[in-house]
Amino acid sequence: MAEIHPPYSSLKKTLSLLNGFVTVSGMILIGLGLSVKYGEANLTRVLGLSSAYLFHVGYLCLIIGCITLLLGLAGWYGATKESRNTLFFCFLLMVIILILEITAAAVVLALFRMVREMALEHTFVTLRKNYRGYNEPDDYSEQWNLVMEKGVFYFFFSVQ
What we know:
Layout: H1 9-38, H2 42-47, H3 53-81, H4 84-130, H5 139-150, H6 152-157
Pfam families: Tetraspanin (PF00335)
Transmembrane segments: 15-36, 57-79, 85-112
Main location: membrane
C-alpha cells in the first residue's frame, strides 16, 4: 500500500529545497568575501588607494553571506519542523532585505555617474603618479603593462 502524505508535504520539500539554495548562496558569498579580503589582490597593488573599495566589498560580501546563511538555515529548520513562527520570521527578514536591496540599487543608480567620475579621476591621478614606463622593473609598471597586454579578464583570473 502506498504511503499517505499530508497535504503540505510537497510544500515542505519545496521550502527545504529553496532554503538549501539560500544557504548555498550564503556560503558562496562568504567564499567570495574571503577571497576578496584575503586573496592576492594584484589590482590593489597596481591602483593603490583607488581600489580600496574592494576591501569594503569583501566585508560587505562577508556580512551579507553570513546573514543569508543564517536565514537559509533558519528557514530550512522552520520548514523541516513545520514551525510557523520561524518561517514567518525568515519570510519577514527576507522581505526587509529585498526592500533594502531595492533602495540601495536605486541610490547607486542615482549616484552612479558622479561616483564613476570620481573613481576614474582618482585612478588616472594614481596612474600618472606611479607609472614609470613600459620596460621599467617596478611592480606598478609591470602589473599595469600586464593588464594592458593581456586584458583585464586575464589579469583577474590568471594564476601567478
